[in-house]
């Protein structure tokens, strides 16, 4: 991929952004037998590797920053395996609130796991966990999280997964993308009450400074959560040089 980075950067030297049409034309120029489907797959690989990022529909920018990689543990693997074996056709993702602590100044002493699945499967997932001796909580409110969830070992919060939420895979486990994690940290103020205010600002600042962020994916998901404008304003206010990276349609 390093060679591809040099080749593409050289081909589009001096351009801050490139359009989908320009990228298609470039790929055809180096492989005139490439089909539209293979080009789409190639662009998808470029995006997954962090070589390019989406800044708006049909427009890409080069990125020198890495894509965020999750650190999974045995508990997450076990949790994912339990659900996927029972319901292989159902969409879901698993993650840990501790991942957000990588971007904070102060490290909370407790964390919880989250499993998100389709709306009509949330209660089924909760019962599955309870039947298998997991300490599970179904859509807990802030008080329940403070008083009970945070005091347990390996607690699991079960909640709905929005359709078309941006996900990624690591060792065949479905995980939330960094973009989803950022939007959820901002949106779920009750669930993430312990990282609001200054710490939430730190999470966004550090994420944008260290990792490649797919703004198109982030803002599309924020729109599905009904707070695209709020998050856009928050980024513009708290992320350095955000006015240069937030390109509006």
Can you offer a commentary on this structure?
The chain has 249 residues and is α/β, with parallel strands linked by helices. It folds into 2 domains: 61 residues, no CATH class; 172 residues, Beta Polymerase, domain 2. It contains 11 helices and 9 strands. It has a 4-stranded mixed sheet with strand order 4-5-7-6, covered by helices on one side. α6 links the parallel β6 and β7. α7 runs antiparallel to α8, α7 packs parallel to α9 and α9 crosses α10. It is globular and about 60 Å long.
- CATH C-level of the largest domain: Alpha Beta
Oligomer: single chain
Instruction: Tell me the total number of β-strands.
Output: 9
Secondary-structure-based class equals alpha/beta
Q: Output the CATH topology of the largest domain.
A: Beta Polymerase, domain 2
Mean pLDDT: 87
Major sheet summary line:
4 strands, mixed
Strand content: 15-25%
Count helical runs.
11
Question: Which strand order does the major sheet show?
Answer: 4-5-7-6
> How many domain units?
2
> What is the ordering of alpha helices and beta strands?
HEHHEEHEEHEHEEEHHHHH
> How far apart are the first and last residues' alpha carbons, in Å?
30 Å
Percentage of residues in helical conformation: 40-55%
What overall geometry do the principal axes of the alpha carbons give? Answer: globular
What Rg is obtained from the alpha carbons, in whole angstroms?
Answer: 20 Å
CATH architect. name of the largest domain: 2-Layer Sandwich
């Amino acid at each position: 991929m390093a060679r591809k980075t040099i080749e593409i950067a050289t081909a589009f030297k001096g351009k801050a952004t490139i359009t989908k049409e320009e990228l298609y034309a470039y790929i055809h120029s180096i492989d005139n037998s490439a089909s539209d489907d293979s080009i789409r797959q190639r662009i998808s690989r470029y995006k997954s590797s962090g070589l390019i990022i989406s800044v708006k529909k049909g427009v890409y920018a080069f990125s020198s920053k890495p894509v965020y990689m999750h650190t999974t543990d045995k508990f997450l693997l076990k949790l994912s395996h339990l659900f996927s074996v029972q319901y292989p056709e159902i969409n879901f993702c698993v993650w840990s609130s501790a991942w957000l602590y990588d971007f904070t100044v102060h490290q909370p002493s407790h964390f919880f796991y989250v499993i998100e699945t389709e709306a009509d499967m949330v209660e089924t997932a909760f019962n599955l966990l309870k039947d298998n001796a997991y300490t599970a909580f179904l859509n807990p409110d802030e008080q329940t999280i403070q008083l009970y969830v945070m005091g347990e070992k390996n607690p699991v919060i079960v909640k709905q997964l929005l359709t078309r939420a941006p996900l990624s895979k690591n060792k065949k486990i479905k995980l939330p993308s960094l973009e989803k994690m950022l939007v959820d940290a901002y949106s779920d103020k009750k669930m993430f009450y312990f990282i609001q205010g200054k710490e939430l600002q730190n999470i966004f600042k550090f994420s944008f400074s260290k990792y490649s962020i797919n703004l198109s994916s982030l803002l599309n998901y924020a729109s599905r959560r009904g707070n695209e404008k709020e998050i856009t304003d928050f980024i513009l206010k708290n992320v350095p040089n955000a006015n240069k990276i937030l390109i509006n349609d």
